[in-house]
Design brief:
The complex is a heterodimer of chains A (about 100) and B (about 110). Chain A has about 100 residues and is mostly helical. Chain A contains three helices and no strands. Helices cover about 75% and strands about 0% of the residues of chain A. The longest helix of chain A is centred in the N-terminal third of the chain and has 26 residues. Chain B is built from three helices and no strands. Classes of the chains: A mainly alpha (about 100), B mainly alpha (about 110).
Chain lengths: ~100, ~110
């Protein structure tokens, strides 16, 4: 990545990457602070999406479209993980006595 | 330049999702923030990438990626929400249900 350091495009790229990295740090902080397995599953789901977002930003900043292949791979893995999550939850979840209306 | 602005907005919405995930008081609201905001963020990022490259090949790749995301994110959010609801995860924002207490059946 070679940039003209005076152009606004370079500033926008740096700002975008910085905001994405800050987001990942906040999400990881939630993973560390949480005691609930639901929250941890949610954080992993969000981090997968973050990986795709990072690939898109890197593709744009570097001008290399091969980053998009990695983004598609992450999206396909996310879909496959969702199928696994469906299978696991449908076969392991039992209703608590208080709440059975779904 | 418009591509960079789309990317920046996508990143800002992702940051809002992360703040919501960190600050919201119960699991169901955290899940709503995470699933909706990250989906919108990815759509904005994909639009920015599409504007940047302006080629059919890249557009098709991004379309496939968005298709996967639109398939997986709502399904996983729905499943996690339903499981949390069945496990009696408590809501902490105001009234706990649209229909009164959660143990009551909705009036039809």
């Amino acid at each position: 990545m070679i940039h003209d350091t005076g152009s606004p495009s370079w500033i926008l790229d740096s700002l975008t990457l910085g905001i994405l990295i800050l987001s990942a740090l906040l999400v990881m902080l939630k993973f560390l602070r949480s005691h609930s397995n639901f929250d941890r599953v949610l954080v992993v789901d969000v981090l997968t999406t973050w990986g795709i977002a990072l690939c898109l930003v890197l593709a744009t900043t570097s001008g290399t479209s091969s980053w998009l292949d990695l983004a598609i791979l992450f999206a396909a893995l996310s879909a496959a993980a969702t199928i696994g999550l469906c299978y696991y939850l449908e076969n392991s979840t039992t209703d608590q006595p208080e709440n059975t209306q779904l | 330049m418009i591509a960079k602005i789309f990317l920046l907005f996508g990143a800002i919405i992702f940051l809002l999702a992360a703040i919501g995930l960190l600050k919201f008081p119960d699991f169901l609201t955290r899940m709503a923030a995470a699933s909706k905001a990250t989906t919108l963020s990815l759509v904005l990022l994909a639009l920015g990438t599409c504007f940047h490259f302006q080629s059919l090949e890249v557009t098709l790749k991004l379309g496939a990626m968005i298709l996967f995301i639109f398939l997986s994110t709502p399904i996983s959010a729905h499943l996690l929400g339903r499981t949390a609801f069945r496990k009696n995860e408590k809501l902490k924002l105001g009234n706990s249900s649209l229909f009164g207490t959660r143990s009551e059946k909705p009036k039809t």
